[in-house]
Amino acid sequence: MKLAEISWEGNSLKVLRSWPRPIREDFGACLWEMQAGNPATLTVRPMISIAASVFELKDQDGSKWYRMIYLARVKDVIYVLHCFTKDSAKTEKRDLATAKARWKQIQQRLRGEPTDVEGAKEQLTTHDKGKRAG
What we know:
By secondary structure, the protein is of the alpha+beta class. Helix content is about 45%, strand content about 25%. The chain contains 4 helices and 5 strands. The chain has helices at about 10-15, 20-35, 95-110, 115-134, and strands spanning about 5-10, 45, 55-60, 65-75, 75-85. Strands 1-5-4-3-2 form a 5-stranded mixed β-sheet, with helices on both faces. The termini are far apart. The relative contact order is 0.15.
């Protein structure tokens, strides 16, 4: 099986890089296994509140819980939607909203539709062209 690529959405890689080294290594080893087509080595929970193909990887140390929400392999790409820490059992609504918004952007990209940012740029460009022509 071909090794899957990792697509880091938003600031997910930056957040992951801020975590303690042992936690980063756990997530890195887990992603490597998943890229190779093997099961995750960390605890996985389905995130059906976002979408059927979205999951959460879980790890912890003595002070925090570390979470990575990802979209399972699509066209040989694993999309990391959101990385965050938490100190209670409940996942914050803002973290779920961030992951869901990034999932929606990926769905648009996969369908070839412009994302909100791309659409805004295109509208601005079209608007500017109209002004120059007049």
